[in-house]
Amino acid sequence: MTAIALSRTVAVVGTGTMGQGIAQVALVAGHLVRLYDAVPGRAAEAAEAIGARLDRLVEKGRIDAAERDAARARLHPAADLAELADAALVVEAVLEDLSVKQELFTALEGVVSDDCLLATNTSSLSVTAIAAALSTPGRFVGLHFFNPAPLLPLVEVVSGFATESAAATRAYDTAKAWGKTPVRCTDTPGFIVNRIARPFYAEAFAIYEERGADPATIDAVLRECGGFKMGPFELTDLIGQDVNEAVTRSVWESFFQSPKFIPSLAQRRLVESGRHGRKSGHGWYAYEDGAERPEPHTAPPTQPPAKVTVEGDLGPAHELLGMIREAGIAVHETDEDKGTRILLPSGGQLVLADGQTSAEFRDVVYFDLALDYRAATRIALSASEVTGWETLRQSIGLFQALGKKVSVVGDVPGMIVARTVAMLVDLAADAVAKGVATPEDIDTAMRLGVNYPLGPVEWGRKLGRAWAHELLDELDARVPTGRYAPSLGLYRQSYVQMEKDEAGA
Fold first, then answer.
1. How far apart are CA 144 and CA 126, in angstroms?
2. 31-45 burial string, b = 16+ CB within 10 Å, else e?
3. How far apart are CA 133 and CA 137, in angstroms?
4. Element (H, E) at 322
5. Phi, psi (5° rounding) for residue 260?
């Protein structure tokens, strides 16, 4: 390990929420910490605030009084940058402005020793661009903590174009020694989490704009069927619509306005109206006193069919076969190779979301992808004007017989969970192919950084060969903007897996 020794000083510049959080992490780990802020008196105020949080840790039994007192003794506000001269690591958490950051680090180069590691906590700027102003950019690295830094374990260790491998390793080992879970990535817009997470928000907003479903229903489907802890509408209300939209816009612009990352017009209008979420009292949902949370659309109880015929193995939905039998519904299986579908007594079909629409076929109802069909408490169904009412009724009744709430949504290709997951899998495959990070680090980052139930690489493997590629290919044919075109990384991944499957057959 090349972690910075506990006997060495860590300095934090910028004493807002992130700066205080990072300082607390280093302090509790055992370092002497110097706090600096360009605004006079701010560093001392931040030190008091950190001290108060240490008191709360004692009250909760996380640390004892002696540890708190020792930590307080190691925390020193600095009135001048010159007081950071003995630092072995300086972490910056100031305004997200390139010129401000470059000016700060240029000044720090004249203060700290040659072996001092310089790090930025930026979430939106290029690490390479910040380092470009330095005479020794090799020791410069991104250390992107997640808010609140003392609680969230993930740290993205970002190597800029000029970052030396020894500097990145030292930063990685130091974060690990502080009890964090670091992941390595190259300097790409959004790094790992903010790059790959975009579809979780974007697809939900697009479905809303397409009048596929309302926010409450989309949130409920992604939570109760997809296994996500929060839906995108409620989550962006918590983050702040202005903050989330700004990150989306930054990533989109950094990728030269790629259609993969295009922002939502509906969210832009929300921001323009001042509805920024919880902090403003209104976002997608209302938060004023007495405001009622809208309920997701849920179909009323319906009689299930007495029997069904299943063609194919149902792919990612294969576990439904046993569940249907357990519900007392007779199942006839056929070996006819006509795809994977459930035939209903009405003569209609029930098909797993595949990127096509019900309007293209006579009497077809699509059902959404679930993280775990047994654990899911809600399923979304999609039908069109040409879908027979009896087919839709029997489809609703079938899933209700399995103990699921049913939400009927509009005829949107790819539905809700399937479309979102396919895009997450695609962006992860693209990032791996372009050397942004390893598959393992991507999955770790997405599970810890945004609390996904599965990492997107693992999810793609679980869904089987070419599933995401085929769904996106169908979506791209129906929405030919380039947004859903499968990436080259996903294409290669799909066919490599296909070769492995055929070799093992």
1. 12
2. bbbbbbbeeeebbbe
3. 8
4. helix 320-326
5. -65, -25
312 phi-psi bin (left φ>0, alpha ψ -120 to 50, beta other)? left
Positions marked catalytic:
123, 144, 156, 194
> What confidence tens digit (pLDDT) does each residue in 265-302 have?
999 999 999 999 999 999 999 999 888 999 999 999 99
- Whole domain around residue 353: which residue ranges? 307-409
Which of 155, 187, 219 is the last residue in one of the domains? Answer: 187
Cα-based distances in Å from 354 to 128, 174, 454, 472? 40, 45, 21, 8
Distance CA 354, CA 39 (A): 56
Per-residue b or e along 485-502, where b marks 16 or more CB atoms closer than 10 Å to that residue's CB: bbbebbbebbeebeeeee
Residues 466, 322, single domain; the answer is no
Question: Does 348 lie in the same domain as 472?
Answer: no
Are 233 and 215 spatial neighbours (Cβ–Cβ below 8 Å)? yes
Specify burial of residue 144 (Cβ count, 10 A radius: 0-12, 13-18, 19+).
buried
134 CB-contact burial (10 Å; exposed 0-12 / middle 13-18 / buried 19+): middle
Query: In this predicted model, what pLDDT tens digit does every residue of 452-479 receive, in sequence order?
Result: 999 999 999 999 878 999 999 999 999 9
pLDDT for residue 408:
98
Q: Provide the pLDDT for residue 75.
A: 97
CA distance 167 to 181: 17
Q: Which residues contact 50 (CB under 8 A, 6 or more apart)?
A: 20, 23, 24, 27, 75
Residues 201, 70, single domain; the answer is: no
Strands 341-343 and 349-352: antiparallel
Distance of alpha carbon 400 from alpha carbon 53, whole angstroms: 48
Look up residue 278 and give its DSSP letter: G
The 3-state DSSP class for residue 456 equals helix
CA dist., res. 419 & res. 199, Å (int): 9
Q: Which of 187, 217, 245 is a domain's end point?
A: 187
The pLDDT > 90 percentage for the chain reads 92
Residues 115 and 241 in one domain: no
Does the pLDDT value for residue 500 go beyond 80? no
Supply the CATH number for residue 319's domain: 3.30.750.190
- Model confidence pLDDT, tens digit, residues 407-440: 999 999 999 999 999 999 999 999 999 999 999 9
Give 307's strand partners.
330
Same domain, 324 and 394: yes
CA-closest candidate to residue 198, choices 29, 11, 427, 367: 427
Q: How many domains does the chain have?
A: 4
Residue 47's pLDDT is 97
